[in-house]
Amino acid sequence: MATGIGAGLIIRGRPYVGAGGTAGEIGHTVVDPGGPICRCGNRGCLETLAGSAAVVAALRDTHGERITLAEAIARARDGSSGCRRALADAGHAIGASVATLCNLFNPRRIVVGGELGAAGDLLLEPLRESLRRGAISSAADDVEVVQGTLGERAEVLGAVALVLRRGAQLAYRT
Q1: pLDDT tens digit sequence for 4-39
Q2: Which domains occur in the chain, in start order?
Q3: How far apart are CA 4 and CA 80, in angstroms?
Q4: Distance (Å, rounded) from C-alpha 173 to C-alpha 164?
């Protein structure tokens, strides 16, 4: 189970990795300066508030120690107010960070995938609301927020695509 939150940045049809390969670490944008200490050493990073582990931790006291994110999503779909709230809180936090991303890069589309993305509109509607509140209105109007279709395979397929692209580039140069 992935617990972090990351972003794959595609600029002009190509992955952007940055100078040292860490571009897209949106999970380490600070959402709450007084929040929990993150593994990176900062406080209140997005993934400490909205990552899979954070969503599950918020539910343990009321839904049991063994609850998983998949179970929380299923219970939210079945109407559990607590599970719906945990996913909405995560969506709002992610939306605040995505709003900053929209202000900086003005993307056309944000695709939310992975285990949290499986929550669909339970996560995406609060995310969109927070994005609209935090982004410049023109940037918010320009972006479409959608659920990913690759599920948990997204990371592996992305890595394979990078390897294939790099191999094609090397073959082309020789």
Answers
A1: 899 889 888 888 889 998 898 999 999 999 999 999
A2: 22-173 (3.30.420.40)
A3: 24
A4: 14
